[in-house]
Amino acid sequence: MIEGLAIFAFAFLGLRILIALVNAVGPARLRGSDLSHEALVSVLIPARNEAGQLPDLLKGLALQYHNNLEIIVYDDNSEDETWDVIQRFVTEDSRVRSVKGLSLPAGWLGKNHACHQLALNAKGDYLLFLDADVRTGPSIITDLLTHSKGHNLDLLSVFPVQQMLTMGELISVPLMNRILVSLLPLPLSRLSKMSSLSAANGQCMFFKAASYHAQHFHHWLKEESVEDIRISREMKRLGMRTEVLLSDGQIQCRMYTGYLEAVKGFARNFHHFFGKSEVAMCVFGVWTSLAPVITGIVFGLSGLLAYLAGTLGLQALVSRASQFPLLQQLWLMPLQHMAMLHIMAAGIYYRKRGKLEWKGRRIS
Length: 364
Fold this sequence. Notes:
This protein is of the alpha/beta class. The chain contains 15 helices and twelve strands. It has two domains: 105 residues, no CATH class; 210 residues, Spore Coat Polysaccharide Biosynthesis Protein SpsA, Chain A, CATH 3.90.550.
């Protein structure tokens, strides 16, 4: 029995290394383009208490190579100076428009309602939903248009390069990429029709407007707390073409500012990386904790060292694909694993106690 588990440990690790290798060296990144396009792109930004984040994002959008834009910012009942910040940019750039948030109706989550209202106000041929905490390089919209048009996509979502400034961020934020890059071969998100082989990141979602308006996805999934992944899977079930890629530097994001904020944020949705199954999530956490021990018991020191070497190789491939500093990520691996277990436990605890919340709002 235990010998079989040890063999499985090496087989599963080998599979993850193979997937990460495909993502690290294959066509898993959004490539640059010097093509020009005439399509009108609606950049849609839901903002709740984002007075400190919006200026950098809006300044970056003003410098886009693609000029045929409308930029609409929805102030989602902010309690800070978000509305005043938006109005300053409205007066400076004719492409920027503002929408004052409505009271959140019953049965809606805040971001889904904000995105729905933004889409109702959009006139573009394409809809680009961006979170307020992302930062854009000047080519992001051109690159999104070129790739989306080239592959006739209904949805293209991109994982930004993550900026991490504190130790708490360094041991928590990379977990998202480690799970994604080692468990999902990103080229199959477009090539396969299986909805399970799809993903998305709400920080950057680029829709063909006609496809979005045909279903009004944020209205359809108005109570879904992890709407990005669910939208991509529903689109694939409807026969639409979707793809998820890693950024090649065109878009960046600082998701959280410290460890506790990261735990609170990831606790909402970490189990969605495992098909929304807390059981599958817990099995993964327990298994990755015990696998080195099992290989050491069965194969001795050589087996343990071989397994640890494989995990280091996996981390190196994830770091390459995600543009993380390699040596930094290697020595942080034990702390990152403990942070993953903490996030898993926190998510289960918060859901059982009904204590999940974000931006000051309770999530059911």
